[in-house]
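[job 4471] stage=fold_predict status=RUNNING
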Amino acid sequence: MIRSPLLALLPLAALSLVGSPAIAAEKLTYYCSADEAWCQLMADGFEAETGIKVSMTRKSSGETFAQLKAEAENPKGDVWWGGTGDPHLQAAEEGLTTAYDSPMRAELHDWAVRQAEAADDKTIGIYSGALGYGYNEELLAANDLPVPACWKDLLKPEYKGHVQMANPNSSGTAYTTLATIVQLFGEEEGFEFMMGLHANINQYTKSGSAPIKAAARGETTIGIVFMHDAVAQAASGFPVKVVAPCEGTGYEIGSMSLIEGSRNPESAKAFYDWALTAPVQSRSVEVKSYQLMSNKAAESSPLAPKLDTITLIDYDFALYGSSDERSRLLKKWDDEVSTLPQ
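[job 4471] inference complete, writing structure tokens
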């Protein structure tokens, strides 16, 4: 029996999936690459509304992509939700995910649908957010450091040991940073930038949001992250200020994909449709997630960064989400940047 008012808003095709007794008896193995609290909200919400038992694994988008590759011969997951779109596009290219044309598609912003079209319908956009950084204003003042406003400010020698970002091999956020810098400055100057930044980095984290959480706790001064992650820390009362870099910046299209060869494909489609509804997407504000959601009717927090006020580059998702280009850039970063002394 369907009891949730949210499920009443789903298209008939989705209702037929969710309402099926056979589906209700199945499980859903759900891989999530968003913030832990949001991942859990989605898992708990879907299980409560459908009766489908959800088994969740939370990893960064780079780690989840690696897991899909490792499990390709014997897939264990059903649906991958969240995380930057580049690894979702790469997974689509490598046949790790499967095409699906959701009946919810007509309710989505154009950028979400374009993400699907770029992947032959093997992924779809669920949220968007701009890249930037945040800083702890108390630590900045205590160390008598100037307020940074641009990407190139982070190369100044006075910031040595004060900057943190994730490793682009494990983090979609950090890979987006690498791809953004290359597109913004050109590859030669972009890698010179990454080398200069490396000298100021105190730690490469596994998770993309970890640097700004560390800044909020006073463990680092500056964290390179998506701006909405910095907003989340500021909204929680930490002394974090958010920066949209003056030169312009890249952005993500957080995505969702159905895993090829999954054990519970109908449950996965039901989750996919449910996750694209406006009421479900509007719940992001409950866990202090401040992205722009893909359903046109979804509500966003007034604190969410306004993309139309930020200088965004024309981010080439098709190129930088391709397997060859992603692998090439990561190898170059490993060879030319990560091995440098600090």
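[job 4471] summary: The mean pLDDT is 92.
[job 4471] exit 0
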